[in-house]
Design brief:
CATH architecture of the largest domain: Alpha-Beta Barrel
Low-confidence stretches: 242-246
CATH superfamily of the largest domain: Aldolase class I
Helix content: 25-40%
Mean pLDDT: 89
CATH topology of the largest domain: TIM Barrel
Bound molecules: iron/sulfur cluster
CATH class of the largest domain: Alpha Beta
Largest sheet: 8 strands, mixed
Structural class: alpha/beta
Strand order of the largest sheet: 1-2-5-6-7-8-9-10
Distance between the termini: 42 Å
Shape: globular
Number of strands: 12
Radius of gyration: 19 Å
Amino acid sequence: MKREYRHLFGPVPSRRLGRSLGIDLTPFKTCTLDCIFCQLGHTTHKTLNRKEYVPVADVEAELEAWIKDGGKADYITLSGSGEPTLHDRFGDILQFIRDQTTIPTALLSNGTLFWRPEVREAAKRANLVKLSLSAWDQTSFDHINRPHPDLKFQQIMDGYRAFRNEFQGKLWIEVFLVWGSNTVPRDLEKIAALAEAMGPDEIHLNTAVRPPAEEYAFAMPRRKMEELTELFRPVATVIAEFSSDKSSDAAANEDTILAMLKRRPCTAQQISEVFGMHLNEVSKYIGKLLRNGKIGRHDRDGESYYAAGEAGRN
Ligand code: SF4
């Protein structure tokens, strides 16, 4: 019988990491930001308060069981329902994974706490760290990322540079492009200059291919994104759709979600509860179904509902 986990999810197909076992270290949705493009919806708990949101002993017990059951993944990744560095012992979990397995670890962070030396120290235990960059100054940061009021853009950028100097592993910068909000050429040049100054190993360009928190967070057309790659140093990569989305598991999940949405409109949270899938995983399938025109989205009472068939077409 398949074991039920509370803090582990997947392995899910990831566009950059292959098959990635996710570890969720914060309750939904605890973050330092409330990005207009967030695929998890609005931040319900915006905070800078670092604490042991989920017990480390429980996470380690689940990891031990997963490893004992012969679990396989290309990466074990700290990500999930919010910002993983808000967990004040995420470094201990990275160390535990290093001690127990040879699977490399990834930390997907919005980077807003990297100005704190203890966060950088803990993050150094990951093999790969991905930091986000979508703004070029405090005003654009306030508009696109809607940060906790005590967060200062310049201080965060200083933290990024300090981390690059201290970290020997792979550093990726992800630039999330929101059509019309950070895609004007002169603004993009500023973002590119900031990214270059971080000295990352790779720069990835992403856009809202999955349903964003705000409907006005429009996706940038792929062709336009491809024209931008040369603006960045190193030359950026547009994150392509993960090819193993064609796996039989993924196809089965997509079909069952579609079948349910043909019967009744649901929110992403409801789908997640019905299928016992993490929201990150649900949002991938929803994004794909939306892009293929198989379902539609309707906002009602502040919630986004997805529907297929006639209900999805109005
Ligand atoms: S996109 Fe990431 S950083 Fe932004 S609100 Fe969502 S979880 Fe937080």
